[in-house]
Design goal:
The complex is a heterodimer of chains A (115) and B (116).
Chain A (H helix, E strand, L loop, with lengths): L2 E3 L4 E5 L4 E3 L2 E3 L4 E8 L5 E7 L5 E3 L5 E5 L4 E6 L8 E9 L8 E2 L3 E6 L1
Parallel strand pairs in A: 2-12
Antiparallel strand pairs in A: 1-4, 3-9, 5-6, 5-10, 7-8, 8-9, 10-11, 10-12
Chain B lengths: L4 E3 L2 E4 L5 E6 L6 E7 L6 E7 L2 E5 L6 E5 L5 E5 L8 E8 L11 E2 L3 E5 L1
Parallel strand pairs in B: 2-11
Antiparallel strand pairs in B: 1-3, 3-8, 4-5, 4-9, 5-6, 7-8, 9-10, 9-11
The chains are: A mainly beta (115), B mainly beta (116).
Chain lengths: 115, 116
């Protein structure tokens, strides 16, 4: 079984401040980890992924995420948030040993960046 | 844009009716997955199609069914609609097989279904 937890329903930051969105995961084997962003009434847009290699992954729009195997976490970060980063963020996991591409998503974290 | 297109974008049905949602996958992708996203929740996996066969299914009843066509496009059919079926239905495409990428899914904009 695989699952994701996003412990914060909402994150509020001021523009220019660092942004962190938390994610922890559970898989039976090794994980593929993903972050997606969703704007109102839109589909999901891919931000970044961890497959293997460096624990710090860089993605689109200045976002990065750090994989921590011992803490089973994959927190999303951005050094300086923009108002346009306000959206709904989803963490997702897939078990590498799985036979399909099923992703298990967290419940999402709403990010609000105030000017 | 991902190149994944879905239709219709919005539709309204009544309880007991049937609905068909359509998806065209991104060029070069041979696998299509469907997800249901209820209001305020994360997407939930319905099923996946590869080479025109279902090869993975989530916790959804049999009245949720699908098809994949030789051109890799796909349909999601839901029979005997219930109020709780109201949601955004997302289609995602990917590439499976020997030259597979690392499992990244490319999502369409979704079809928003309202059941009255």
């Amino acid at each position: 079984a695989q699952s994701v937890a996003q412990p914060e329903d909402q994150v509020n930051v001021a523009e220019g401040n660092p942004l962190t969105v938390k994610c922890t995961y559970s898989v039976s084997g090794n994980p593929y980890l993903f972050w997606y962003v969703q704007y109102p009434n839109r589909g999901l847009q891919f931000l970044l992924k961890y497959i293997t290699g460096d624990n710090l992954v860089k993605g689109s729009y200045g976002f990065e995420a750090e994989f921590n195997k011992s803490q089973t976490s994959f927190h999303l970060k951005k050094p300086s948030a923009l108002v346009s980063d306000s959206a709904l963020y989803f963490c997702a996991v897939r078990d590498i040993g799985g036979n399909d591409y099923k992703l298990s998503f967290g419940a999402g974290t709403t990010v609000t960046v105030r000017a | 844009e991902t190149g994944v297109t879905q239709s219709p974008t919005h539709l309204i049905k009544t309880r007991g009716q049937q609905v068909t949602l359509r998806c065209s996958s991104q060029s070069g992708h041979n696998t299509v997955s469907w997800y249901q996203q209820a209001l305020g929740q994360g997407p939930q996996f319905i099923f996946q199609y590869y080479r025109e066969e279902e090869n993975g299914r989530g916790n959804f009843p049999p009245r949720f069914s699908g098809l994949q066509f030789p051109n890799y496009s796909s349909e999601l059919n839901v029979n005997a609609l219930e109020l709780d079926d109201s949601a955004l239905y997302l289609c995602a495409s990917s590439l499976a097989g020997r030259n597979a990428n690392t499992g990244e899914l490319f999502f369409g904009e979704g079809s928003r279904l309202t059941v009255l």
